[in-house]
Each structure stands twice: as C-alpha cells, then as structure tokens.
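From the pipeline queue, job 12 of 40. The input is one protein chain; the requested action is below.

Action: predict structure.
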Amino acid sequence: MNIKYDENRQVFLINTEHTSYGMAVTDGRYLCHLYYGKRIEDTDLRYLLREDEPPFVPSENVRETGSFLDAAYMEYPESGMGDYRESAFCMRDERGFRASELSYDGYEIRKGKPGLEGLPAVWGSEEDCMTLKIWLKDELTGVRVTLLYSTFADVDVITRAVTVENAGEEAVYLEKVFSACLDLDDRDFEMMGLYGSWARERHIERMPLGWGRRNIASFRGESSHQEHPFLALVTPETTQETGEVYAMNFVYSGNFMAQAEKSQFGAVRMTMGIHPEGFVWKLAPGERFTAPEVVMVYSDQGLGKMTRTFHDLYRSHLIRSRYLHEKRPILINNWEATYFDFDEKKLLEIAREASELGIEMLVMDDGWFGKRNCDDSSLGDWVVNEEKIRGGLSSLVEEVKALGMKFGIWIEPEMISPESELYRKHPDWALQIPGRDITQSRAQYVLDFSRDEVVDGIYEMIAGVLRSADISYVKWDMNRQLATMGSLALPADRQGELYHRYMLGVYRMQERLVTDFPEILLENCSGGGARFDPGMLYYSPQIWCSDDTDAVERLAIQEGTALLYPVSAMGAHVSVCPNHAVGRVTPFETRGHVALLGTFGYELDITKLSEEEKNLVRKQVADYHRYNDLIREGDYYRMESSMSGSAFDSWMIVSKDKGRALVFAVQVTAKPNGKSRFLRLKGLDPQQMYRVEGRTYRGNVLMNAGLRIPSVQGDARSRLIDVERV
C-alpha cells in the first residue's frame, strides 16, 4: 500500500496491493476523479481529465462553466452551481440559499486510520494502514469539507468518509452529506443489489443499468429487510471468476441511499450515503458533522474475489469481539419451541435434553420480563417476571449452569409498549409529534434514542439484569421501523437531525454494552435480518440472518448475505418441520448442513424430537466441532446457485493454506431419470493432491473436470464433502 501526491502534475494516487485510485486538481480548484482499477504505478494520468476537449476548464472558457460542471468527473460534487447529476453535498445558508463551491484546499498523508466520532468504522494500525485527507473549502460560508481515504496492507480495499466543519460565522444547514462518489466511463454496466422483505432478506438482483438514475434505499430508520446498503456495478461478462466489479458497502445501520446514474454523455456516477429525505443537520459555527464510512472494493476477477475481499476486511478490520476467532457455543433458543408460553420448568426441561445432546447454551427469548405474555405489553419494563421465572433469574441461570450449559437472554431495548409501566411514567420518551397519534407497529412505540437520558435509563435497567446473573449471551432485537418522527427534546431547527441522532444513540448504547460486559457474546437482530450491516458487525460478531429458518429459503438468504459478510457472522439455526415460516418439510440432515454455514444452533422444542432426530443432533454437533474452525476462518467460494434457476445449490470453504476444504452440495429439486453430475470445485492448489471420500485427485482435476456427485431421490437433499490435502 502507498499513497502519493505528484506535486508537479497535481495528481493523487492511492495504491493497494492490486488496485489503484487516482484523482487530480484541475483549474487550481476542482478535485476530479481519474481512475479506479487494476494497480498502476505512474502518476502521468492528467490526460484522463480530457482538459483539452470542449467545454475546457472554466479558466479557459468561463462562458461554459456550467457545461464543464455537468460533464467533469467530480470527486465530491456539490449542488446548486451547474452539475445536474446526483450531488454528494448540499447545504443551505441562513438566507435560505442552496449552493456551495467546494474548492481544493490542501491535503495530508499519514500512517494509520482515524476513528469516526460516535460511529462504527473499519480500524487499523499505523503498520497496516495509511490515510489521505483532502480538504475542500467553500469560501463564501467558510464551510470546510474533509475527504478521508484509507488503505490497508493486507486487503484490496479503500474506505471513504467525510467530515464537515463550519469555520464561518453563521450557521448552515446540511441537507445532504454523502460519504462517497465515483464517476466512471460506462462499460455497459449492470447494477447489482440485495433486495427482499421480512423472512426473505438479501436476495441478489442484477439488471442492466440503463439511462437515468436507479437507487437502492431505505427510509425506515434501519438498513432494512427490503433493501440493503450495498451497490455494485459489474461488466456484462461478470461471473464468480471473471469480469470487473466496482462495489460499495455502507458502514451504517440507518437510512441510506445508494445510487447509480448514467448521464447524457455515457458516464456513470455511483454515490452512497445517508438518505437525504428527512435529513437536515444544523451546523453552528465551530461545529463538525461526521458522515459514516463507505467501503469500496474493485475486483477484476469477478464476484468471488469481491466477496473474499469483503470477508477478509470485516474479519481483520471491523469485527472487534473476542469471539471473532473463537468457536462459539452451540445454542438452543426457546422461541419457536414455546413462544410466550413458558416458565422456568419448561426452560429447564429443554436445557436438560439439550445438554445431553451436546448443545452448550440455552437462550431465553421474548416473554421473560414485566407482564409480557403476548407482544402487546411490557417493552421497557426490564424486570424479571417471577410469576414465570419462579425463584428469579439467578436461580434459573445457576440450574442451567449445573447442567454444563451457558445462559443467554433476549432484549429489545429500543422499543416501548403503550401498555407498560415505563410509558406511564415517561410518555415523553417515545418518538412522537404533538397533536398526532403515534403510529403503532406490533403494538409498539419507538423510544427516543436521540436523548441521552433515554439511552442511559434503558441501559441501566438492562445492565442491572445482566449483573444479576451469569449471562453469557445477549440477543438484541429491533422489531419495527421508525415512524412519527418527532422528538420532544429537540428544537424545531434540529428535528431534521432525529434519524441520525437516533442511530448514534443506538451505537452509543451498544458500545457501552460491549465495553462494560466484554465477556458477553452479543448477537444483533432486527425482526430477523433488517439490520444485517457493517455498522452492527462493529459491535457484534454475529447477526441473526432471518426469521425464516427453512433450509430451502435459507439457500437464497445466506447466498446473498455471504456475498458480502463472513459466514461466521450469519446467525443460522436448525428448526422443526413443517417450517413455521413457509410450512415446508425438509430433511433434518439438510437443515443441519445449511445451518452449519453460520453460527449454528437450534430453534425448536428439543423435548419433542424423535430418537432418530436426536441422533442426527448428536451428529450435527460433532460436525460443528469438526468443521467450525475451517468454516469460520476459511475462504468462501460459490459454485452453483438455485436463485439463478439451477436445481442445485453448492458452495465450499477452503482453508487459507489450501490444505483443506469443505463442500456443501444441495439438490434443491429432484428430477426423474437423472444421472450423476460433476461439480467443479474452486480455490484448491492445482498441483497438490487431495483425498476425497477415500480417493485421491489432483487439485486441477477437481477444479477443471469436477467431483462426481451421484443422483439422489428427493427434494432438498444435501451432502457434506470433506476435501483434504494428502
């Protein structure tokens, strides 16, 4: 990695091991984008600016300044002066005027990577990171924008973030502060994103880009089930192994917009940042605003290389938990076993049976607090219901520990029930607009986490519960989107800050939780997978992937999730059939194989399993202990996808030294009169010999000719195949 500035040419060049990113200052003030792609060494790149073509730079053709602004490849475009493509920055001054002119004002190159105040961010040391700061300034208002670019010695990634400081004498109102913009020549790009809904999150979608603007966005107060803070531009020939990919992922868990736009001149602009709708941030003189971080990845070796780059970055430079490189306890959650209908006797019954089968942790889900016997009360009353948990929480935990198991607990800190003691005492703590009914969802209101006293009050209640017993795991849930967005604590000219301030409050509480209780394994959840994003991974090493645990549905959900995130971060459990979400019946063995590509656990009443199923649990537990180190730390390769219409779905994990691999193969739909097929493996050493099911093959044979997979009868039939170097 290196970052250099060619002063004579006024060119910046940022290099990772295999990629380069170039910018230049033109006309003494405009910071323009030059290049992003395979690594180059030369800074003689100004010809890429097309400065000798009409409309020329403004100093040579001032009458066509607008034409220049609307065509130049701008590094951080502002609004209001003549660039009619999507802007990255928009502010309004005290007089109501919306315009800015961000002129180049200097730079700094330093070792290391600075953190972002109040926000999750990728981290690194002075030995493995370098950061470029470029300063832009609006002379009229005194507003100063800092663009941050960081590189890493061990991974081909560039991260970008933005800070805005008001060095003027009057307040300004920030109406848009995107974190990244990338202008490129079009190459018939296709646009790739992740879409879905509750119980079918993060399905992969790919479509031609076309003219105009296409965006992926959430305005729900969370990264959402429906869309995802990821956008990639791919060339038409792109596969898992071939083609070019330009990808952005947002390290943020709230409202976002990711957009690609093809302009009249055939250029493409890619932008990402906080969604501008509902966002207005008052920046008083001397104040600073920090926008969240964007992770950028370029791959010239298809989607597979992009995926493994994201995985390596997030495992090495984002997740901080002590559990990152540890085998996590196999848990059983009582939710689908009991829902709200449980007491300490039922929980202990589940725990006794689970402990005999090798399961290592009991998680008590929703319904343990206040008067919570259904989902219409008691959120906010974080006191153990001793009518259910007779003897108290500490007594229950000690009995579970006596069985050789750990204990975990479910919480939903951000919500408040209208029917709760907390709401009766603090009705002003809910998000609300005076004179309007508060929009309910799941009979819940949302707490105003923009207020320190609310965050502190909720935290102290929950921390008291965690201190009262030996709790090893916390599942943090968030089961509804934000609405009726008003805070009784913010003045009128700061109500537009509420969405972002809310998210900062969530981050503040999670930071406090993992700091005060570093031994606790935190798993984030949001009605399933509505906040599975890099922002959450900064605080928890795993996130519940989806409330849909059906093995067939999980193939698409986990494929889309693993496109970006390490498989060790995917909360995945074995549940009963017919499945509670879709009613499908799948083999118990397949449910185990699919859940193995994740954190692994159970979501069922284990006391009701047959002896045959209990024996399969024992085998699955043994498989987890045998393979988890490889699955957690290895490289992920995708071979087949049922989402693309194939009757098969397959993937594999390969150790970093290519000495061992594990192949997962699922026959999603059976066909009559079928023959065996040959599955081409990936990621092996082509010249080394590997043993597979008693036979030896050279790596290039397994990858080029393939491994024979016999035909079997039945839908959703799976195989787990161990590959080991001889």
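Job complete. The two ends are 36 Å apart (CA to CA).
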